[in-house]
Amino acid sequence: MTFSFRPVPDDPRLADLVERLRGYLDGELAQYEHDNGITHTSRLSRADLEPVWKRCRALGFYGIHLPVEYGGQALSYSELAVLKEEIAASGRVLGHSVLGDMGGPLRAGDILRHATPHQLDTYLLPLVRGERACCFSLTEADAGSDVRAMRTTAVRDGDGYRLTGHKVFSSAGPFADFAIVVARMADAEEESYSAFLVDLDSPGCRVTDGATPMSGEHIESDIVLDDCRVPAANLLGEEGKGLRIALGRVTVNRLLHCPSAIGAARRALHLTRDRALTRTVNGKPLLALQAIQHKLADMAADLYAARSMTYAALAALDRGEDVRTEAFMCKLFVAESAFRLLDEAVQIHGKDGLTQGHEIEYLFRKMRMFRVLTGTSEIQRNGIAKGLATLA
């Protein structure tokens, strides 16, 4: 795996996919964003996003990781990661909608295998087609890393359930049709959690503006449930197995977040290299200064190391190996090294890197968030230490 700002996969089929994806991102999607004035701080509406979902479905990108019977190409984890990296490296605002990360097939995750025929027909197949959107509602104000501290409850009520609670950071909530909600079973003798498909227009369910993260994106919602009735047909999987469903692919998801951060860091390094080539100081390019050369060298080395270890772990996952400890390592190293890289990128860009609206300033904030989202660096270190303790 050699270093490149525009890597070309060895596999011809994947290389063709990457080339077609780049063409769409840099051409049609870039024009769509320009024509509609879409920026990272835009309040995105369903009208903004649905055309992108359906266009990407027509192009074969939306849900491309899914099995063939669902219209996908059954990509390996490594192949999917390559596409996720390319999207992040493109700098497109709506990149999250191309494969279905934001409210689509990737957001739904692995729940298709838990769904009943009714749930597939009503919720998940329309989601795959870009006709419906979902959000995932697990986090609460006092239940983040410690998800078992959640207070949202589900009570059996005849042939259904009554849900009460307040979920936060439900990404894609502003334009979702339904939520995957995990709740504590209030009347269970032992600690028990279940997952439900909740229509967001149900009586007793309110979608409110969520907190605006430091990235400035308006993609989060709070889901407020007040004695919201959910039919038994919307129970996802078995009662009491909700956390297993919610966290069942945690290792895979942890690894698959890394290529997006790597892509963002790759773009930042590319922009910073170009800045150093074109910015002049005392009549010479910034890159002529040895201090800048060394900064860029360290940034490139960090990126190469992060990318190499991530794809090595993904290849092992594709072979069916247990990579739980490696996933913790990748999330930790990618998050910390990407943030270091962006910190240097801001420094080299000077006042432009400090200016709101500049892409480097935005990427800096995004990479700072990645050190917390999907498990803090401290949580990753805990996981690594636990894995080391059990090594032979």
Automatic annotation (TrEMBL):
The entry's keywords: FAD, Flavoprotein, Oxidoreductase
Pfam families on file: Acyl-CoA_dh_1, Acyl-CoA_dh_M, Acyl-CoA_dh_N
Q: Which residues form the Acyl-CoA oxidase/dehydrogenase middle domain?
A: 135-228
Listed GO MF terms: oxidoreductase activity
Q: Indicate the segments forming the Acyl-CoA dehydrogenase/oxidase C-terminal domain, all copies.
A: 240-388
Q: Does the keyword Transmembrane helix apply?
A: no
Which EC number applies? 1.-.-.-
Q: Where is the Acyl-CoA dehydrogenase/oxidase N-terminal domain?
A: 17-131
Which cofactors go with this protein?
FAD
Q: What CDD domains does the record point to?
A: ACAD (cd00567)
Q: Which SUPFAM superfamilies match?
A: Acyl-CoA dehydrogenase C-terminal domain-like (SSF47203), Acyl-CoA dehydrogenase NM domain-like (SSF56645)
Family to which the UniProt record says this protein belongs: Belongs to the acyl-CoA dehydrogenase family.
Q: What is this protein called?
A: Acyl-CoA dehydrogenase family protein
Highest classification ranks of the organism: Bacteria, Bacillati, Actinomycetota, Actinomycetes, Kitasatosporales
